[in-house]
Amino acid sequence: MKILVTGGLGFIGSHTVVELQNEGFEVVIIDNLSNSTENVLNGIIAITGRQPIFEKLDLREKASVQDFFKKYSDVSGVIHFAASKAVGESVENPLLYYENNLNPLIYILQELQQKDKANFIFSSSCTVYGQAEKMPITENAPIQPANSPYGNTKQIGEEIIEDVAKVSNITAVLLRYFNPIGAHPSAEIGELPNGVPQNLVPFITQTGIGLRKELSVFGADYPTSDGTCIRDYIHVVDLAKAHVVALKRLIESKNESKVETFNIGSGTGSTVLEVINSFEKVSGQKLPYKLVDRREGDVIEAFADTEKANAILGWKAESTLDEAVESAWKWEKKIRS
Ligand code: WQD
């Protein structure tokens, strides 16, 4: 059974391709290499021994998307990762985000609308909840007005899928990720941030390896146990596995509604200082850091209630924070060796 994975050479996409292949799926990757490299293919093959089909394609070109689905009319499901994801960049360049995160989604859905049955998994984000009132966050938590164009594209994307599913044979699962971190235990694939990492864990590992002088902790005066923000850091392999179970649910038509939504996190909140402590524990080295002002737009606290994914998908994150941080560190050392 052939599955299209857009953005399949990216961080979460590549780990999901591995888990799909482990479950016997044939994978076709579309990637425009804007935030990944073709070498990631070798990493995937090194792990699974299987070569995914790779099509270098810019999904912003409608004709390219149409040609793809003519060539691969036997695609049974689509996992759509391809999107820009830097919150700060989206504020500076909103049209880049609206074009790149929405047009490809629309073009793909247009192609799927003609199919007799289409299984679609959308890469969404806990950012749609903004600063949720209640912790842990359930799927029923209100959707807050987005505080960035990036977050807005996730909200609009979800709404587009809901609307199209009502009038087509598309069945969809929206996976709202919390904070994906870490790397495949083999260290054959992992995160490859472009330039200065915006996210915490890659910045920590680059500081640990000496690429960065010190970590700036954005705010230590929050109303939390140690004053720093709380997030739900989930191992990227656990996140990848959630996509496979969600896809199987759609293919086996076990879904109870046209569109189902799941929060995908570890279910545990960790402060920034706790992540630093985790790194120091697993690496055996001190991490240079300084406490600085808060970062604009950061929420104080966000961690997932994963009860629904546990009960309905039969999925639960298995890795601990230390295991995820250790895998990120192992990957950092591998790519810098
Ligand atoms: C985590 C915590 C920072 C860097 C974003 C997107 C989300 C998803 C994941 C795409 C915060 C602190 C960070 C640093 C720091 N993106 N931090 N120093 O902001 O929770 O989520 O990335 O899917 O949609 O919103 O993740 O890793 O940037 O920050 O102190 O150098 O680490 O303030 O509290 P975030 P993050």
TrEMBL record:
CDD domains to which the protein is assigned, alphabetical: UDP_G4E_1_SDR_e
Cofactor (UniProt): NAD(+)
Keywords of the record: Carbohydrate metabolism, Isomerase, NAD
Domain of life: Bacteria
GO molecular function: UDP-glucose 4-epimerase activity
Xref: Pfam families: GDP_Man_Dehyd (PF16363)
Pathway membership: Carbohydrate metabolism; galactose metabolism
EC code(s) of this entry: 5.1.3.2
Domain NAD(P)-binding: 4-326
UniProt catalytic activity: UDP-alpha-D-glucose = UDP-alpha-D-galactose
Family to which this protein belongs: Belongs to the NAD(P)-dependent epimerase/dehydratase family.
NCBIfam families: galE
Oligomer and partners: Homodimer.
Protein name: UDP-glucose 4-epimerase
